[in-house]
Amino acid sequence: MKTGKIVSLDKVQAMFREVFGLSRAAAISAVGLVTAVVIGAIVLFIYLAPPTTIIMSSGPKGSMFERNALKYVEILKRNGVTMKLVPSEGSVENLKRLLDPAFKVDAGFVQGGVAGDAKIDKLMSLGSVFNEPLFIFYRNSGTEDTLAQLKGKKIAVGEAGSGTHTLSLELLKLNGIESGGPTRLLEIDSDQAAQDMLDAKLDAVFLMGDSVSSEMIRKLLRTPGVKLLSLAQADGYTRKVKYLNKMVLPRGVIDFGNNLPPQDVLLIGPTVEIIARRDLHPALSDLLIEAAIEVHNRATILQRRGDFPSPVEHEYRISEDAARFYKSGKGFLYRYLPYTLASLVSRILLVLVPMIIVLLPGLRLIPAVYSWRIKSRIFKWYKALMFIEQDLTPQLTAETKEGLLVRIDNIEDAVNKMKVPSSFADQFYALRGHISFVRSRLLAGEHQR
């Protein structure tokens, strides 16, 4: 097997020597260059290949996060990409997973405000995809319109570490309500909290779409004695807390026949973004944004058509690939070819062009350098012959003549030992002829004429 490889290598070297007129060493250099460039091109071709699988940290079962992620799965499947969903407790856990290099995940839904002091410089945003409303349900015979009115109540604020929990505590703190005071703040799972609210075990509950199903929200809206808090101070909260947005749940939008809700409800909530790791492949970034447009660009009860997705930068920087997509759309090939074919063609172009740019000048340079080297050696001996001819004077003594003959013999001996490719045979034999010419002049005494 090794013998076969050696024979093949010798054949390649022989081809280069014959085509380019190279020596064995120069041919080996040319073969080495071609081999290195081809291997580099193969490695680059493989490296540039976009993954066919993407892992997304979604959310709790039945939550808004999971429902949206399941739509992404179907859209990416149409493009030959498999999306694997990893259920989570919501935004906080999604962010923790993305920040943990040991956890295999590429992207996830993360609501604004949960990053805190975490170092998020290795993460990037693919854009905001929707505003996530905070639903505050309460039991009271009166009409509440501020959070301060919940003081002294028994309130479920979400499980510790959840996005609901983080936002609830921040809002209550702005109203002077903190744990340890007269108000009982219960850190319990959102599903359990919602059920406790239905069972009249709580005075109020904070719920968000990433931690509880939409069915439960609708059930609470229809439950007698349970009301949805309309925040009269919604504008103030959005000015005070930079990542919050004001939303309006229009009157009757849940059930027009039963006029549910009976009036417009002012809500607040953070923006949810698709957060990804910095090394996400550009082609996958485009696919995720394309899926986001298909899923989130429509009108809903809380947003107008075209509001999302949006490249507005919040806590996380917008990735360069995302900024390019929002500005000019998908790349030319991905716009007109199927994803798999476009990926193949783009990699061929990205690899083939650099390979040609490197190989053509390189293969042209090697013969040029080699030719210059051979010619310089030939010219070296021509120069030595010219010096000898300059010494051929009428006053030439026998001793000097003998010394010149020795110099000519040394030149001839050195020239005969030169290894010159056949492409330089004319120059080689011309040099040998000129050596004989100079010797004959010296022996014939032409210098005395």
Q: What oligomerization state is this entry in?
A: single chain
CATH architecture of the largest domain: 3-Layer(aba) Sandwich
Query: Can you tell me the CATH topology of the largest domain?
Result: D-Maltodextrin-Binding Protein, domain 2
Query: What is the helix fraction of residues, given as a range?
Result: 40-55%
**Main sheet overview:** 6 strands, mixed
SSE succession:
HHEHEHEEEEHEHEHEHEEHHHHHH
Record field, number of beta strands: 11
> Helix- and strand-based class?
alpha/beta
Kindly report the name of the CATH homologous superfamily of the largest domain.
Periplasmic binding protein-like II
CATH class of the largest domain: Alpha Beta
Number of distinct helices: 14
Question: Poorly predicted ranges (pLDDT <50, ≥5 residues)?
Answer: 1-7
Strand content: 5-15%
Mean pLDDT: 83
Number of domains: 2
Radius of gyration computed on alpha carbons: 40 Å
End-to-end separation in angstroms reads 69 Å
Description:
The chain is α/β, with parallel strands linked by helices and 449 residues long. It has two domains: 2-41 and 347-448, no CATH class; 52-329, Periplasmic binding protein-like II (D-Maltodextrin-Binding Protein, domain 2, 3-Layer(aba) Sandwich). Helices cover 50% and strands 14% of the residues. The chain is built from 14 helices and eleven strands. It has helices at residues 2-20, 24-47, 64-78, 91-99, 163-174, 190-198, 214-221, 234-240, 282-296, 320-328, 332-336, 339-390, 398-416, 425-444; strands at 53-57, 82-86, 107-111, 123-131, 134-138, 154-156, 184-186, 204-208, 227-228, 244-249, 265-277. The strands form two sheets. Strands 1, 2, 3, 4, 10 and 11 form a six-stranded mixed β-sheet that branches. Strands 7-6-8-5-9 form a five-stranded mixed β-sheet. The radius of gyration is 40 Å and the shape is rod-shaped. Residues 1-7 have low confidence and may be disordered.
